[in-house]
Amino acid sequence: MIATGVDVTKLHKMEKSLKESEDSFKRLFENTHDVFYRTNGQQELMLVGPGAQRLLGYTAKEVIGKPASDYYAHPEERQAVVDAIIKYGEIKDFPAQLRHKRGYVVDVAITSKVILGIQGEILGIEGFFRDTTEEVNYRKQLIKLASTDELTEVLNRRSFFEGANQLIKLVNRYSENCLLVVVDLDYFKEINDRHGHLSGDNILKTIVSLIKESLREADIFGRLGGDEFSIIFRNCTLSEGYEICSRTIKKIKDTKVPMPNKEKVSLSVSLGVTPLTAEDNPFVLALARADRALYLAKTKGRGCFAVSPLDGGEPFLPLHSEWQPL
Hints:
Number of domains: 2
CATH architecture of the largest domain: 2-Layer Sandwich
Distance between the termini: 114 Å
Radius of gyration: 31 Å
């Protein structure tokens, strides 16, 4: 009887310890910011922590039994996660994007491992995912700050050169027609000296805004420094480039910017144009040609564009370049 009493006492202690462990796990499961999940071998959700409702808007009841891929912003991305887990046995902080019940994207990092049966068969996957939206947005902001001109919000010189050199490789691979255009503001120093640098900054931003109206999503636009900018028009023939340049020059000429003293300043730009080819490696080869064309446009009255040919010939003013000396 005494021995039995001891056994019962030990059993009670074990039950108490187990209950405390279960309570501890339950508190962790319910209160952690990370969201626990488990799937079966068919990648259907079998267990999801309550944090899923906070992060994705779904209750556990809504998602249990559904394919995990249903909650990815890009369902095929789930397969990439599964493939990585199966290949390595586990993953840690694997980046992915889930979709909130309201439709917006949530960036997450997934830490998971495969669940194997006694025969080595895959029974499912379990792990955690955590919200990384703020981290991702912060990294994007840092990248933007590092690659963007602070005043005009176009690419800075370094990033523009990087983009141009990468594009040259694509030109070589796909025989893509591209045009390089160098843009220089006319009489900008005089405007700065007369009206001040704040007014000068406002004019730079106005010019950039007007140029952007002629750009397509694939085009590259950057500030080389001071009042000089550069554009690469992708999939653009020389004749199409002529039309874009003429239209842009006219649009800028038709714009007047008010100054603090109520005076309205007329704007003008000169452009240097040249085709961009796979032979322009490094990119400065094409830039030198465009600069020669820009110099001609400047010396011929400004407010116009000139073209440098690929054959090394002298830059020229196209006959239908609509320019008027100022």
